[in-house]
Amino acid sequence: MNESFELTPTRVRELRAFAASARLLNFSQAAREVGCTPSVLSRRIASLEAAVGARLFLRTTRRVALTARGEQLLVHCDRLDAVLGELAEELQPQQGGLQGRLRIHLPRNYGIQRIAALLARFMVAHPAVRIDATYDDAYADLVASRVDLAVRAGRLVDSQLVARRVGTMRRYLCATPAYLEHAPPLRDPADLKAHRCLAFSGLRTGTLWQFTRQRQRRSVRIEPVLQTNDSKAIRDAVLAGVGIGVQGDYMGDPLITSGELVEVLPDWQLSQSPVHLVWLPGADRVPAVRTLIDFLARELGGR
Q1: CA neighbor of 147 nearest in space, from 167, 158, 137, 133
Q2: Coiled-coil annotation: which residues (predicted)?
Q3: Predicted local confidence at residue 7, as pLDDT
Q4: Element housing 180 (H / E)
């Protein structure tokens, strides 16, 4: 095939004319199959042979046969026909419910605690939808990773994305009752200097814990006995009685309710993080993406 060969609509018609002729080895029958006259079919095959730079058929008065080049081209035509058939099926208007495969990126622990069960419910309601979910705290480039929808907690920095706020994540300090029973008094953020503190390195301020109470602001630079980028590891260490740590409400609230943990300095508030669904412009025109956005916004909106 020469360098000028391009798969234009005209070329596709020529390839279909060739494929029908190659399978039937009868130009009149092939013309009826592709919906043209025998003379038009012959012109299409002649044009294709010129583009390929080789004869595709051996013609005699009694029979038609494929050349070696024609046999090779027929294999490729069969592949092309299969691909075009799959594409036509994929582009058919969806009927009877949502379909398709969605790629979703979520913060690891927040996604597992708050969203994994919601995705399962969504898939039960829409069984023809397939989901590839990545739970990872690393920043995801939606274009490079081909992500349809992402969940982000914190300040948004990519102005090219469409965003929909679906909630707020509250952070607070907590510890076990047993730790607090034997620890120094804790009435003011400055008292944290005398305590064993556990730091989540994912916080934008690092080991500088910043508090507000009404119009008052306090900042305390802690010296952590444990520092990690995994909030679950912080939770497990706090539950073990190692010291005081920061927890997001999605992970800490059930432990506060059960009495396993106690909120520390409840009058002083740590920073809160907005939670957004984000997607590339136009991605929500896909029905499955649009429906998932609305579903998650409805379920997360009150949190």
Answers
A1: 133
A2: none
A3: 78
A4: helix 177-182
Q: Residue 69 burial (CB < 10 Å; 0-12/13-18/19+)?
A: middle
Taking the C-alpha atoms of residue 225 and residue 243, their distance in angstroms, rounded to an integer, is 8
Tell me the two tokens of residue 301.
């909106």
CB 268, CB 189: distance < 8 Å? yes
User: What's the CA gap between 233 and 254, in Å, rounded?
Assistant: 16
Q: Could you read off the pLDDT of 69-127 as tens digits, one per residue?
A: 999 999 988 888 877 776 665 555 555 678 899 999 999 999 999 999 999 999 999 99
CA distance 192 to 223: 10
- From the CB of residue 117, how many other CB atoms can be counted at a distance below 10 Å? 11
The token pair at 184 is 């120094």
Strand 162-175 with 262-264, pairing: antiparallel
> What is the tens place of the pLDDT at every residue in 147-192?
999 999 888 877 788 999 998 889 999 999 999 999 999 999 999 9
Q: Are 153 and 106 in contact (CB under 8 A)?
A: no
Which helix (H) or strand (E) segment holds residue 174: the answer is: strand 162-175
Structure tokens given for 211: 């508090």
Residue-by-residue DSSP string for 200-237: ETTSTTTTEEEEEETTEEEEEE---SEEES-HHHHHHH
Give the Cα separation of 290 and 217 in Å (integer): 41
